[in-house]
Design brief:
With about 325 residues, the chain is an alpha+beta fold. Helices cover about 45% and strands about 15% of the residues. The chain has nine helices and ten strands. A hairpin with a 2-residue loop joins strand 2 (about 40-45) and strand 3 (about 50-55). Helix 5 packs antiparallel against helix 8 (about 275-295) and helix 5 (about 175-190) packs across helix 9 (about 310-325). The longest helix has 24 residues, at about 275-295. The radius of gyration is 20 Å and the shape is globular.
């Protein structure tokens, strides 16, 4: 019988285990279970004490070229001693596998496991370590480019607001605020001297959810799915914005942790005065971008939580509050 077309499926963990055993010479004792279904799906593979993560990319989310560029970047970072979850080649030295899923071809890559665990709030010393890691990453990739997206103001602010407007009416107070704020930030970015902003490769998603920390403070960075090109201060801005969220701004630990992160970063590479000035504007630009991603992936990810009410609460509780705390008004 013919099967009705689908837009998203979860691949069988037991069959993926058998597949990986065959193509990576893992034993029949290898187990596999799904640990996250979202923009992409992640599966944990365990062979005794050894662990791996298999990422199954969503249909039409990334091209083979984009995934190969991600792999190339991770291998370069790994070779240079930066602690990342890196891709694992199979028996024939291939990194990318393609599965004929019900919705169409889905690509997969096996990654090393990031030791440790996700910690929502960690000590200042760990923030310093993350700052040095980000600084080394930026130092290594400054003035380099990937064959992937470049995060321009248009991508971050204009394309995103178009996606958000599909779910939140322009007649609402919140959407009117977003459009005014968009123009304010675009105006600030347009008058920037690009020579004062370092450009290169960015991760664009460095926060506690993509960092595993061991009990002795060793940090491993993973999930480079959004890596691309742009101002490298975007990574700094995103981290500071997420730190403000997790520490809730007024926590007594927030400022020392921010200072330690920036101290760690600047112990490796400098932030120009213009980069520092623009950090709040770039942080808010990334709020726009990721809210746009949530709207973009409504059909096969965010529909479980995204609604007009959710968008209003997000704008008022996060974006507007962060803007006001940084003195950005419209």
């Amino acid at each position: 019988m013919a099967y009705f077309p689908v837009t998203k499926s979860n691949l069988s963990a037991s069959h993926l285990s058998q597949y990986v055993q065959k193509h990576y010479c893992l034993s029949t004792n290898t187990t596999c279970k799904i640990i996250r279904s979202g923009i992409n799906d992640s599966y944990l593979l365990e062979e005794g004490m050894t662990k791996f993560v298999l990422r199954i990319y969503s249909l039409h989310w990334r091209t083979i070229t984009e995934i190969n560029e991600e792999i190339k970047l991770l291998n370069e970072l790994h070779r240079n001693g930066i602690q990342v979850s890196f891709p694992i080649a199979d028996n024939l030295n291939n990194y990318i596998h393609i599965f004929d899923a019900p919705e169409g071809e889905r690509m997969a890559v096996l990654f090393s496991y990031a030791e440790g665990e996700k910690i929502h709030s960690f000590p200042s010393a760990v923030h310093f370590t993350i700052g040095t890691m980000m600084g080394r990453f930026h130092q290594l990739t400054q003035n380099k480019n990937l064959k992937r997206i470049t995060y321009t103001p248009k991508v971050l602010l204009q394309d995103s607001i178009a996606l958000i407007s599909m779910f939140l009416s322009t007649a609402t107070e919140e959407m009117n605020y977003m459009m005014l704020l968009q123009q304010k930030i675009l105006s600030e970015l347009e008058k920037t001297n690009n020579d004062t902003l370092r450009a290169g490769i960015v991760h664009l998603d460095i926060w506690f959810d993509n960092l595993n920390v061991t009990t002795d403070g060793k940090v491993t960075l993973f999930d480079f799915d959004f890596c691309g090109n742009g101002w490298q201060s975007l990574d700094v801005a995103y981290y500071l914005m997420q730190l403000a969220n997790t520490e809730k701004y007024i926590d007594a630990a927030y400022l020392p942790k921010t200072e330690q992160f920036l101290a760690g970063y600047q112990s490796v590479t400098s932030l120009s005065a213009e980069e520092k000035r623009l950090l709040p504007f770039l942080s808010i630009s990334l709020y726009f971008f990721y809210l746009g991603v949530q709207c973009q992936r409504y059909d096969n990810w965010s529909n479980a939580f995204l609604s007009a009410d959710y968008l209003k609460r997000f704008i008022n509780g996060l974006i507007k509050r962060y803007a006001e705390l940084n003195g950005i008004t419209v």
